[in-house]
Design goal:
CATH superfamily of the largest domain: Flavodoxin domain
Order of helices and strands: EEEEHEHHEEHEHEEH
Shape: globular
Number of domains: 2
CATH architecture of the largest domain: 3-Layer(aba) Sandwich
CATH class of the largest domain: Alpha Beta
Distance between the termini: 69 Å
CATH topology of the largest domain: Rossmann fold
Strand content: 15-25%
Number of helices: 6
Length: about 240
């Protein structure tokens, strides 16, 4: 039996129509929700090399039919976590600090299917504003039932010379602790450049970002197509232990 496959895109839904050519009376419609990835630009510079790397990843996501948005947080004034623990008590998906847009961003990220964390390298680590943002973001989401659990996550780093691996490692800690599904490429997700735009000349780095976009899109599609047929594991009650006797 021969099959013809037709795709219709309407707003945020994609309609798949399967026409079985040997049967004039049988056809099947399947609706697949349009997916979205939200990327966090942790660089103080709006369109520096971190941004350029995100656009490389995003171009491949969009080529795979996935919406892509960048939120720039690196230039904002964002307070660090005060360890007040109120987000664990209120369970309202909000941080008690209301002097910055974090609570607004939490809801945007909650609705995303995939999340990308990105940062330049500052003293072999994550940029300070980005670190403050991440500490509060993930404390709130983990304290409210694991809001990012089983979303697809990725981290990318832009660096002039060295410190990229340690910075990437730090970003990955947030993703793995949250039980997200980590997307990878054909090398560490690091791109090199000094002045804005230099990253586009790092041919290997460009390929790394593009492969990351393709791999992330594939993971997102697998997750979406199996969510109704393959039950996800139940979330375990976290065991907390101190080695102090």
């Amino acid at each position: 039996m021969h099959t013809m496959f037709v795709v219709y895109a309407v707003r945020n839904m994609v309609f798949y129509k399967y026409l079985f050519l040997n049967s004039s009376y049988f056809c099947t419609y399947k609706i697949v929700r349009k997916m979205k990835v939200v990327a966090i630009n942790g660089s103080p510079h709006k369109e520096g090399n971190t941004y350029q790397a995100l656009k490389m990843v995003g171009s491949k996501l969009e080529a795979n039919g996935i919406d892509f948005e960048i939120i720039h947080v690196g230039h904002k004034t964002i307070s660090g976590c005060r360890a007040c623990g109120k987000c664990r008590v209120t369970q309202d998906e909000r941080c008690s600090i209301t002097t910055d847009p974090l609570n607004e961003w939490i809801q945007i990220l909650k609705d995303a299917d995939g999340i990308i964390l990105s940062s330049p390298v500052h003293f072999s680590g994550v940029a300070g504003t980005m670190k403050s943002f991440l500490d509060r973001l993930f404390y709130v989401t983990l304290s409210n039932g694991g809001m990012f659990r089983h979303k697809v996550g990725a981290a990318i780093v832009a660096v002039r010379r060295s410190g990229g691996s340690s910075t990437l490692d730090c970003l990955n800690h947030y993703i793995t602790y949250s039980e997200m599904m980590l997307a990878s490429s054909n090398y560490w997700n690091i791109i090199h450049g000094t002045t804005p735009g230099d990253a586009t000349q790092d041919s290997e780095g460009v390929q790394i970002m593009e492969e990351l976009g393709n791999n992330m899109a594939w993971q997102l599609k697998m997750r979406e197509m199996t969510k109704d047929t393959l039950a996800e594991p139940e979330r375990a009650q976290k065991v907390m232990m101190s080695f102090i006797r």
